[in-house]
Write a structure and sequence with these properties.
Cofactor: FAD
Keywords: FAD, Flavoprotein, Nucleotide-binding, Oxidoreductase, Proline metabolism
Catalytic activity: L-proline + a quinone = (S)-1-pyrroline-5-carboxylate + a quinol + H(+)
Organism: Salipaludibacillus agaradhaerens
InterPro entries: FAD-linked_oxidoreductase-like, PRODH_bac_arc, Proline_DH_dom, Proline_oxidase
Largest sheet: 8 strands, parallel, barrel
CATH class: Alpha Beta
């Protein structure tokens, strides 16, 4: 637990982040990030598609504080959508609302999302709003509900470690959701702290969303949960077309391919860009095994 809290602290430390960004994606980050440019991301997605894997790309960045930065981020999302269409890859777009100005002005963020979703709709591409820390949860869900009055090609993520996750699942019946355990440090008042409690609640919301007929993206590297979901869907007669598994780029590639071989959809979350620091630190915090990536990167320099 100390290790997890340590890396979560580092993920939010601007002093260390500023210096880390000067080093470039070292300490293993290059193993889990698909380059810095859109073109590099598209080449990575192509290679995944050739193996039978689908993808979602995410231009890394969060907590934008100026209108100009938010508009630039929105334009970059549009460019990414156009690249997905041009390269004819099987790929979604993932993004964070703080990138698009949620902390600057809600109307600015909404307008940016409307622009992105309109382009995505034209190109037939689904857009996933990534969930951020608890302080942004209500604002994210409120904006999602507003956007879905105009677009069907948008969904979000729900974090299984939150006490309120089951209620949010019920409120979001029919919405394409990415279900994750959660990667931010949250207080015991809002989130389960023990791993067994998180796992139990995570499985509960997965089964609830599947059972109400909603499309469900199960984002986990935990083979035990994957096996449990497969068993449950067979028992309930839930078609493979109603759900997919998701994993992060650079993690458990053998298991990703095994899932595809077994006839299930496997989507790989592909991050790219120069703002890799916060993302990478949260990955180290999630599982102690991930620290080996950092050591390999350090020793290779």
């Amino acid at each position: 637990m100390i290790t997890r809290h340590f890396f979560l602290f580092l993920s939010q430390n601007n002093f260390i982040k500023t210096r880390a960004m000067k080093w470039g994606p070292k300490f293993g980050a290059k193993s889990v990030i698909a380059g810095e440019t859109i073109e590099e991301a598209m080449e990575t997605v192509k290679s995944l598609n050739e193996k039978g894997l689908v993808a979602t790309v995410d231009h890394l960045g969060e907590f934008v504080y100026t209108r100009e930065e938010a508009i630039d981020s929105a334009n970059y999302c549009v460019k990414t959508l156009e690249a997905i269409a041009t390269h004819k890859v099987s790929c979604h777009l993932s993004l964070k609302l703080t990138q698009l100005g949620l902390d600057v002005n809600r109307h600015l963020c909404r307008d940016n999302m409307m622009k992105i979703l309109k382009k995505a709709e034209e190109l037939g591409i689904f857009v996933r709003i990534d969930m951020e820390d608890y302080s942004h949860l209500d604002a994210t869900l409120d904006l999602l509900h507003e956007l879905r009055q105009h677009f069907n090609n948008v969904g979000t993520a729900i974090q299984g470690y939150l006490h309120r996750a089951e209620k949010d699942i019920r409120d979001l019946k029919g919405v394409n959701l990415r279900l994750i355990k959660g990667a931010y440090k949250e207080s015991p008042e809002v989130a389960y702290q023990k791993q067994e409690e998180v796992d139990r609640n995570y499985l509960k919301i997965i089964k609830a969303h599947l059972l109400n007929g909603s499309y469900t993206a199960i984002a986990t590297h935990d083979h035990r949960i994957i096996e449990d979901v497969i068993t449950y869907t067979k028992e309930q007669g839930i078609e493979k077309t109603q759900f997919e598994f998701q994993m992060l780029y650079g993690f458990r590639q053998d298991l990703q391919l095994k899932i595809v071989e077994d006839g299930y959809k496997m989507r790989v979350y592909v991050p790219f860009g120069i703002d890799w620091y916060g993302y990478f630190m949260r990955r180290l915090a999630e599982r102690p095994q991930n620290i080996t990536f950092a050591l390999r990167g350090l020793l290779s320099k």
